[in-house]
Amino acid sequence: MHIEIGDVSDSAIYFPDGGTSAVWGAAVTACGHARTAPGEPYPPRPGEHPGDHLFWLPRGGRILDGYQLLYVSAGKGVFETASAGAVEVGAGSAFLLLPGVWHRYAPDPATGWVEWFVELRGPALERLREAGVLRSESSVFHPGLGAEWVEPFETLLALAREGGVGAREEMSTLGMHLLARIVFSRTGREPSPEERAVRQAEARMRESLGEPLKIAALAREMGVEFDRFRRCFKALTGLPPKQYLLQLRMRRAEELLSRTGRSVTEIAAELGFNSAFHFSAAFKMHSGLAPALWRSARMTGNAP
Hints:
Elements: E1 11-14, H1 20-24, E2 27-36, E3 67-81, E4 85-90, E5 93-97, E6 103-107, E7 113-121, H2 123-130, E8 140-141, H3 147-162, H4 167-183, H5 193-207, H6 215-222, H7 226-237, H8 241-259, H9 264-270, H10 276-287, H11 291-300
Antiparallel strand pairs: 1-2, 2-7, 3-4, 3-5, 3-6, 3-7, 5-8
């Protein structure tokens, strides 16, 4: 269902997780859209929101227990947190609210604004926060103006209204995709030291598949504390560093087995394994077949 920009009626929809976050890693638990006219009291239509989501200006603020992403598509205003202070946000800006962090925000009375929001919960968000990807001191983004930023919010609202089988799951995926696009939008945001270290480590792994890399030593080389490096690596790639390196080696092994006539012993040495036995054991765990059998199956078109 597509809704043209400007045709979406003001609304806020809240609903329980329902177990989606346990299966998918994240769940959308609210989404909404509101226009605040110049001079109109803020927040508009407070009856649409749960009591723990409200705050009253000019002195009020709040602390949430979930994550909220807000995007301003028209007008301007101010966003304030305890750690970052007050920051002006205008059309094309977005800001992220983190659990346990005091905050408040409001449109400029002279301009009002149009806002869109989505609320997310789940372990995937917690892992991103632990890894330093989501940070309260760096929670304002400037992805810019355009239909590509408004349309995901419209789709979330349409799914929330229509419901049906798979709607919550689709919303969770769309919500995380939208979060990733905004947080990593190319607008001058500086990556954290952990993020830079992960990207450098990925490149190093790809270039050095035959070296006996030690993950802890690699983290030290990148200048990042090991536990933070490991958490950030998993948050950004989906795998722990050691498992990620092993997967790279297994994919390279598949290429060598299928495209060259090199022996298992030669491939094991090229990929940094201590012996053909250790390589064969790792490859069998990866593919379900020993290397020689996998090669034979691939040649006959029967590979799993």
